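thread: overnight batch results

M.L. [08:02]
morning all. the overnight job finished for the chain we discussed friday. pasting input first so we're all looking at the same thing
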Amino acid sequence: MGRSAVVFDLGGVLLHWQPLALLQLVLPQHASDRSGAQALAALIFQGFDPGSDWALFDLGQISPEALARRIAMRTGLPVEDVQAVIDAIPPHLATLDGTEALLHELRAQGHRLCFLSNMPGPYAEHLLQQKPFFGVFEDGIFSAHVQQMKPDAGIYTLAVERFRLQGQPTWFIDDVQRNLDAAEAVGWSGLRFESAGQVRAQLVEAGLLRN
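M.L. [08:03]
and the structure it wrote out:
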């Protein structure tokens, strides 16, 4: 079993991320059911696409307060409602125990572990203080700290250099296909996360873990 590098996304992979449930909890007056939450999510988050309001936050180019004002102006939502969503996200990001166990298993098998995450600066600081699993990673990149984000090619090139991945087999685990496509363009092997068990089975099949 050779030594590989495994790069993890965070939100939706190591951290609970259910934006529809979050919106129904925080703004029930605007998202009373799933379809309402879907419409509200599209309005607020814009698919987290590059060029969206939220992308500026992920890139570290805007404060939470400025983001709330910007989204409110664009959508017509009350600024205090948008701010409530922004403020509710850090405590929503609970650790997914199954994936955390997978981290420790990979580390025990001698693989190198890093993370690559689109994450606003205030959320990144909160997570670094609250989540012990960061001690398992050799290194990691938050988008806000480098002002680059997935799926832009530059952040993957930076990761290859910073994590010293040249010539090393590298696996990337993410829950968003466009991020995996970009990773595969730099020679990484992509695994689309659906559950810790599913990813573990694929890592066993690839020879990174013992069954």
